[in-house]
Each structure stands twice: as C-alpha cells, then as structure tokens.
Amino acid sequence: SAVISQKPSRDICQRGTSLTIQCQVDSQVTMMFWYRQQPGQSLTLIATANQGSEATYESGFVIDKFPISRPNLTFSTLTVSNMSPEDSSIYLCSVEDGLNYGYTFGSGTRLTVV
Amino acid sequence: RKEVEQDPGPFNVPEGATVAFNCTYSNSASQSFFWYRQDCRKEPKLLMSVYSSGNEDGRFTAQLNRASQYISLLIRDSKLSDSATYLCVVWSNNNDMRFGAGTRLTVKP
Q1: Could you say which of A29, B55, B76, B86 is the most buried, measured as most Cβ atoms within 10 Å of its Cβ?
Q2: CA of B93, closest CA in chain A: separation in Å?
Q3: Which among B46, B96, B98 has CB closest to A102?
C-alpha cells in the first residue's frame, strides 16, 4: 500500500493565522483526499485534490477557508486559513489504494487554535 | 438519517469474548465496504474489506447484506490488543468514502 508522509504532526496556532499541512506520497496517485476528524467524531471529507484542476469541496467547506494545492501526482497541501478555535481538529490526507484495498491515511495533523 | 450508522458502543468485553458490530448505510448505490480500525490518537488503518460473499481473516469475520444495506464485523476470541475504535466505511462510485462514527471496543483482562 502507499506510504504517506504528513507534516506537521501537530501545531498550536494563534487565532486569525493560517497553517499549511503537507502530504507526500511515495507513489503517483490520481486523487488525494483531505479529511477532518473533530474530537470524538468520525471523519468528514473536506475536499478531493485533483492534479491539474481545482479541488472539489464538500458541502460546508469552501476554497477560501481551506485552499488546496496539488502541484503533482505525489504531493498536496491543505491550508486552514484565518483560524478560529472551532478549527481545532485532526486533519488527515488519504489516497486510494485500489478499489478493494480502501484508502491509506497519513498520520494526521493535530491542530489546536488558541 | 446519517449516511453510515454504527452501533454507538462502547463495548466492554472480557478477553476471549466474541463481539459483533453492526453498520447500516443509506446509499443503495454504494459499491465497496470496509472496516477500519483506529487506535487512540492514530490514523485509521484498514482492517478488512467486506465482500458480498462474506469474508474471514483469522478471528475477524465480515458480512455484507446488500438487500438490507447492512454490514457486520465479528471478532472471536478477543484480545487486549483488539481495543480500538472500529469504523464502518462505505465507498460509492464517485470516489466518495463515507465513515461511520465508529464503535469503541475495550477488551479487559
């Protein structure tokens, strides 16, 4: 299965600032996905990062708040912009490992906004 | 109605017990089904895919009932190391994975 390196693993940020999370995959993948997992909750898809085109956002998530870059088939970034304490969460990237193999996840970024 | 619903748990069982988790999904067009395991403060990891004919991997058995839109996971002879949150995951043909809220299992000595 794919191996994903996600950075940073955790950060504590001031309200109003932005944080960019990076995911590097050890193989080329068509799509990368960004999820949020709030404390005690399951995963919610933020957006799908497509190489060569704009990301596709899920309902409730907008590009201005969560801009995504996908410069090539092995790398993507998610920025959490103008942060507020409500953005405190775990953010995870993932890639598809084949239809019957599910998705592989990065190790997650634990974000705390103070 | 949530797209993927799981037993709320938590399940607290003794070592050696058999425990079963259930999951229902609302999208009848869903194509693939998975059980993931998530340890505390870790990312989810694939435990097993769920096939229409049912499948078994050691102490773990997964079943799928498409007519009832229902998935189950059975763990036999549970170990302390099985303690985790188990996520039911459903994939649709628009490359969309939907996660259940998870069921927490604690296996006690």
Answers
A1: B86
A2: 10
A3: B46
* Tokens 């693993």 -> residue: A9
Task: Identify the sign of the CA torsion A68, A37, A5, A98.
Answer: negative
pLDDT tens across the length of chain B (109 residues): 678 999 878 999 999 999 999 999 998 888 889 999 999 889 999 999 998 888 999 999 999 999 999 999 999 999 999 999 999 999 887 667 889 999 999 999 9
CA-based torsion, B61, B83, A4, A15: positive or negative: positive
Across the A:B interface, residue pairs with CB atoms under 8 Å apart total 49
What residues of chain A have any CB closer than 8 angstroms to a CB in chain B? Answer: 1, 31, 33, 41-45, 48, 92, 94, 96-97, 99-108, 110
CA-based diameter of chain B, in Å?
Answer: 43
